[in-house]
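Model it.
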Amino acid sequence: MVSFPLPPIRSPQLTVTDTECLADDEGRERTECTAVHVRHVTAVNAFSCADVVLKRGTSRLHLRAKGSGMNLGMDCNKVVEETTETFVDAHEHYDMLEQLGRGSISTVRKAVRKKDGLVVSLKIAGSKDKSSLVEAEFKMLQSIKHRNIISSFDYFETSVSSILVLEYFAGSTMEDAVRQAAQGHLPELTSRELFRSLLSAVCYLHTSRIIHRDVKPSNVMVSVCLSDLRLLDFNVAKRLTEGGAMTMTGTRLYFAPEVINGEPPSEANDVWGCGICLFYMLAGRLPWKTLPESVFVDHPALKVTGSWCQNLSEPCKSVIRQCLTVDYHWRPPVRTIMMHEWFWADGFDPCSDADLNADITPSPSRSSRRTTL
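Modeled.
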């Protein structure tokens, strides 16, 4: 009998992309997938061998990593199961749309509330361990109301995750808006109006004895026309009346010098964050590329010089210097900055801002709603 040598068996070629595989793993029912290796026909007869490489209930991501000799350090099947269950529960009340963003502890998706057609944003924390943070953010947002602070509508828990229902604000983060700008930065007048709105939001918080603690370009949403904004991400915000120690959170380059040096949190930290946002809008970058790793660091003084600021007005430069004053004892409060001459241009009267004239008293808390699904 004459036989022909068999060619080497090649691995099956999957035609779907990595992104499609992840989407399939996260949102769809698992389906059985087989790859058939066909061997050559001999002179006597032909035969084929089917090898099942993906079995029902097994994550594609897990198998791909295993095939490459990688150890993901997590149970992919459990992740798939929990993510799928989250969307099953959320689908009872919302029509899920596209993903809007992803943070360190949560994913944000656009959705439509079924009962009234309201377009909302769902902030989904995919771990029950983070539920306390999400619930604390919900309670904080329920106690405040300002036109430039994102609104919260509801909070509910599924068996595997916590979901915060937020106002949907069309636009992008300040960070992305600056990156997409034609000149790589925003004009002074545009930056001034956005900065005025940001200061108004922070002034309202400080009037209510609340510090945000994480004011930075990625936590500010700006409208498509760059005329409106919302301050986001209150998961580390604190009431000064609560007291207690507070750990450093966030990205080091955004930290105020006193935070790095271990000083107690204060409103001055938020003023620094606002200054970082203003600098970023006008320069298209952060003031410093790197900072020393030492906790107790002599923060470099800001120099408002160079080509990036040669076309800026002197009042604008003055506001930048004041917000980013290294010694927080000399850093002006938000109310003082809002009265700066830079904001008096074009006939605008800063004294007309209700937040500037508000009494320093805590705002009344609204009744909180919480649903467990």
